[in-house]
Specification:
By secondary structure, the chain is α/β, with parallel strands linked by helices. It has four helices and three strands, in the order αβαβαβα. The chain has a three-stranded parallel beta sheet with strand order 1-2-3. The relative contact order is 0.13.
């Protein structure tokens, strides 16, 4: 069973949405794509709720995880929440291309 403490600033409606992201990521990565132990993972949009879920689940499962974010603020958020060290910021050239 997955248990976690709901932050005091969240409503129960907000807290109820969190397991959905983790369930969707698990289903997509492990059931649909058949992610295997030796696979490295790149998470694009790592600061989004699903990005955080994908980074957390795959990192805890022993995968090498790299993350892509949009800004320095998002980069700091992912470092604080997930603890990833391999985080890349999208370049302007990439976004416009």
């Amino acid at each position: 069973m997955f248990l976690w403490e709901v932050p005091l600033t969240w409503t129960m409606s907000q807290a109820a949405t969190v397991p959905l992201d983790y369930a969707m990521v698990y289903y997509g990565m492990y059931m649909l794509s058949n992610l295997e132990n030796q696979d490295d993972v790149v998470v694009i949009g790592a600061a989004t709720p699903r990005g955080i879920a994908a980074s957390t689940i795959t990192m805890l499962d022993g995968h090498e995880v790299s993350a892509v974010v949009e800004s320095n603020r998002e980069k700091e958020h992912v470092i604080d929440v997930v603890g990833l060290g391999s985080i890349f910021k999208r370049s302007e050239d990439y976004q416009s291309g």
